[in-house]
Amino acid sequence: MLKTFRRLIQRRRVARELDDELRFHVEMETDANVARGLTPDEARRRALAEFGGVVQTREAVGDVRRFSIESLWQDTRYSARVLGANPAFSLAAIGMLAVGIGVTTAMFTVVDALILRPVPFHAPEQLAHVWMGNDRGGRGTVAPAVLRAWRESPAFLGAESADVTTAVVEATGALTTRRIARVTPGIFELLGGVRPVAGRLFDSTEGRAGADDRVLLGEPAWRALFNGDPSIVGQRIRLDGEPVTVVGILPASFRFPAWDTALWRPIDFDSPPPALRAARATAYVRFAPDVPREDALRMATDAARAAHAENADLRPWVFPLAGFHFDVSAYPRHAVSLLTGGVLLVFLVLCANVCSLLLARVTARRREFSMRGALGASRGRLIRQALVESGVIGAAAVVVGVAVAWGLVSAARALLPDAFLLRTLNPLAIDLRALGVTSIAGVAATLGIGLLPAWLGTRVNAGDSLRISDRGGTEGRGARAVTRTLLVAEIALACALLAGATLLVRSFMNLTAADRGLDAAGVATLTMSLPETAFPDAGARRAAAQAIEDRLRQLPSVQQIAWSYGLPPSGGAISFGDWVSDLPDAPPVNMLIEHIWVGPEFFSLYRIPLLRGRTFEASDGRDAVIVGERLAAALWPGVDPVGRTFRRDKQQYQVIGVARETHYPTLDATADRPEFYQRHAGVGSYASLSLRCGSNCPDPAVLRRHVADVHPRVQVHEAGPLEAVYLEQQAVPRATAALGVAFAAVALLAAAGGLFSVLSYAVGRRRREFGIRAALGAAPAQLRRVVIRDGLAVALAGLTLGALLAALLSRGLAWLQYGVTPGDPLSLVTVAGTIGVTTLLAAWRPARAAARVDPARLLREE
Amino acid sequence: MPKTEYLQGALDLLILQTLALGSNHGWGIQQRIRQVSRESLSVSQGSLYPALHRLEAAGLLSSEMAASENNRKARIYTLTAAGRKRLQSEAEDWKEFALAIRRVLQTG
Fold it and tell me: How many CB atoms within 10 Å of residue A65?
């Protein structure tokens, strides 16, 4: 290095001396020619002609004198030619690495967007969503007075509200639903750095009664619904049947408060529009940076208590905006880290495979390397050549890998379940940082895995290539051991991935096939609010409910309608406490119970059979209940509960019937709670409606539109097929299982490819041995068996190691198994069987080649 | 492959052997090889000078600018101890190699 540097400085002097040296040569030659009797001119001309160009010589010497870029370029061109001459090898190596780089980049991008990257707002660590609660529970909204008090409090730089619901949008004659947020105008300033693509943000007066008919459109919705028409700003569009003016377009990168928010309408809690008079604030705050967090929370608690009596024994729950968190289930976060681990395993398998491929290539080219060594190439130069070759492969793989990653991320954006994306406020796009990291990792990995083959493969001594006893380049013992070890590791990793994937798939299958205890197919549900301001008493609510019911009954596909408070599978209200039956000396049973208020038609609509007793009648009071099987079994083991009573605290219930238990199959076991039913006495301010409508349920937007037509003040929250609720629970397990299978398949294919090439190579090397065996009378089947046994030995070693890995892995997978145990025999048989069959398939052609060695031809070749 | 690498092993051997008889400049080495091989081996300057510089970079030769016998500025090459050692081992290898080739040719 130092030498090179010094030479660079001395280059001028060296060049001058070289000129002197070459001139001297020409002069000497000229003198010699003159001595032979030529004229001086002729002598010089001949000398120069013989010299063959001073310039070329100077260049050639220059090549030797410095470690030149030109010689590296030479190696690169040579490598490209070598790789071009073996397209199958090159494509396999580049393809495998590209898949590895692509999958890893894509996964990194997803993990980065979901977990690593903070939300794209100014100083996001100071931003939080605040609930009020205590040990028994909490609520996500605060009274408007609390929001006002927090705005004044020195604990916060600001406090604003943003709440998401769904709206029916009319665009170019069609009805669609989009997520809409009601936001206080100051929310954009609170988050910081929000700039509209067109138009403006809300001004501080918008959101008051009479000035709330404004809306901001998100860029994706603007493009999808209004064809990206810029003249939409300033025009009126219809939301839930009401005309509102578009004041601006927000960029696609602005995703708040949820990733799929498409529209924003202003609300001012000091003078809200009549429909929202009872609305509560969903508080987002920015902490003051100079106030310690504990002091800030104490101040916030005091301010909230002073502002509204409901906060007397409540305190703030802070959910920071930065980072990725799930309120309900940690599953997706676990799934993401699991898949990241899976991707790394796949990357390792592919790297191992490329490494053994390179090693096999270098071994096969021992002759070429030893020839070059004999002709004077130093070992360093040979290693450099091998490294340049793997560098060329790596560079090509990075280019292809980027394309793979781009495709995968596009697919992820389209296919990843909402549950994955729900909590990230970052757009999912490949960023240059992710690309840079993985590209560098990719090239480094290639060079790294190229180094071992280069080291082993170039260990040649001059004359090796021409040693007469040498037939076709033997595989060195070192290379052989390395290849086999890599292969065992590959199979072990593939085995672990396969075991993990099998568990995920079986969990997912169990989840979809799990008994729900009811018939959800052909049922649509709606949840709605009937605000007190519009529906002041029970009579007004009953009239509105009857009108809605009558309207929906007219839809041709609707067969049955049932009002309730609470819906399967998530239930109505959760009751927690000590439940005591009327059995003598019955111990209190402490459990979470789902509490649903239903009418008599509910059970027939959901096809939930009553196992004992009867359904509700109009004369039943508040204490009459129908219990599910689980609660019945817990309170009255082995005893018929009908006619018996039970209580919690001071509340007493009388059992009139037992219904079949319903189940909510999710990975979170606590989501599936026992239930009991009470009579639904009439629609309250919050109500749920179930429709049985057979195979062609009306579109959710149509249902919303009908309700809005009957009574525009009824707010519909959710509308859609019940099946979707169950499917939503399956989305993450399905995606995880699918990705797990994909990873296992890639790893398995790579391992099979590795096994195939190693066995083929070994057979090629042992042709003489097989020929002799055949000549001595070995049957083709026996020769085949030799090769297959060779393959199975490697596979068995891999399987043993893989079983250990899988055992470790399955312990980490425990939380995402549904109805499967890691030691599950079917899973074990599947894994062992798949590895075995793969081994046989990979070994089949090499084995056939061994059996077909023709001794006569072999002899001729010698 | 660049022409400098063509039969490099042999050319190196010739240069080392020539310089083992005494220090010389490029032209002198070329003349000497031509004479000793009875005009049957002729080394082109395009191969000779790169080889000389490469051997020097490898530490097998040393050189200095000096006045030649007719008082011209010339680069004189001298064999180093490492060069001498290399000459011995290469010569052994070469003899073995040549013998092997001859055997191969005789079997035909």
Answer: 18
